[in-house]
Write a structure and sequence with these properties.
- The protein is mostly beta strands.
- The protein has three domains: 108 residues, Immunoglobulin-like (Sandwich), CATH 2.60.40; 161 residues, Sandwich (Immunoglobulin-like), CATH 2.60.40.420; 165 residues, Cupredoxins -  blue copper proteins (Immunoglobulin-like, Sandwich), CATH 2.60.40.
- It is built from six helices and 30 strands.
- The strands form seven sheets. The protein has a six-stranded mixed β-sheet with strand order 10-9-12-17-14-15. Strands 21-20-23-28-25-26 form a six-stranded mixed β-sheet, with no helix packed on it.
- Strand 25 and strand 26 form a beta hairpin.
- The protein is globular.
Length: 458
Amino acid sequence: MRRTIAGRTLVMYGYNGQYPGPLLQVQQGATILVDFHNSIDQPSAVHWHGVRLENRSDGAVGVTQAAVQPGDRYLYRVHFRDAGIYWYHPHVREDIQQDLGLAGNVLVTPAARNYWSTVNREEVLLLDDLLLTERALVPYGREAPTHALSGRHGNVTLVNGDPRWSLTVARGEVVRFHLTNAANARFFNLSFGTLPLKLVGSDLGRYERESWTPNAVIAPAERYVVEVRFDRAGPVPLLSRVQALDHMAGWFVPQVDTLGVIQVLDAPAVPDLRESFATLRTNRDEIDEFASLRRLASRPATHALTLGVRMDSVPLAVATMLWGTPVAADWNDGMPMVNWAVTGRRTTWLLRDAENGAENMDVHWRFSRGDLVRMQFYNDPLSAHAMAHPIHVHGQRFLVLSRNGALVDNMVWKDTAVVPVGETVELLVEMSNPGRWMIHCHIAEHLGAGMMTVFDVQ
């Protein structure tokens, strides 16, 4: 596809001639067939992120299927057990193919009535970024990812593929936003001007309790569902506010990106949902479901991984720069030249079994269907260039039980969770889906540099 973005004419990829790909809207419990025809110049596949589907349709090349070669086809059968917001993308050279536009959303409508609150409208937003020179895209590595340290952070942000996204709403309108982060590496810290956000859901459904928040932090591959009431006429910016780090100078700089603008008209919304928006709901079904699972928080973790990195043949000047004070999360590319120069051939990001020291694809975990497995992830702050990792578990759903020993008091079913530097995060993974599945970091360049393993559910 030929696209013009920020004044540059670019050749990119698309699904069905669209960027992002078509929004698929289905009912909970539905099964769809997707005829995938690969017409690009690279082998590819489609991963249905977060969906608890049959193993052969997961799209994990080398684990559940062979790559679909240029000109070939593959039929996916996708069953949607759970309500929520999902997305689809390649699982071959994500650092290239996903970044060039191969991503789209799936909105699964709940079977239960009144699952969500009443709103005036719903909007699905796919967040992304692109790294551009004055004329074109910064080139990708042919044989291995570039930007293998912090991942490829773009300098142009996109909402639904548009660097100047906009929306027009009526005064008082309540909008439910389904948010997905499709960026290779960027963490967004979202706010709608100064308006409060009602946080109602995440990857696979509802929180136990709705809550107010001024902002929503969303890592690569995560999804969040928030509701916003636009109570005054005028423009409201969609912002990402972060503390950018300059590794060379050793200081933080406030950085604010305007992702788009919502124009609020003076005409009032009909109906007026002011009262229902002001009410925070308690979801009794989720509270009851999670009550018994919470009791497992007192048990020790049976499986543990340590997150780290191994550097091979890195020049001394580069290695010297890597050893610095670790930060919980890199919100930006704080050393772009070093990051660009270090490739996936010189870097191996690690998932290390804490019990026997096995790494990445040499980790062998086996479970039985129905098992509730407590997994522990520790992000070693003493590793070279320690940084936060969004960890994704294929084919199953999980609860985040605790962070650094502190129990999570408002839980939601997830498939991707962030493990910040120095933290120990414990998950309770429900092994409901038989097959061979992946666990990996969802920073595309870290996946391309080996940060993945598999587990079997019999």
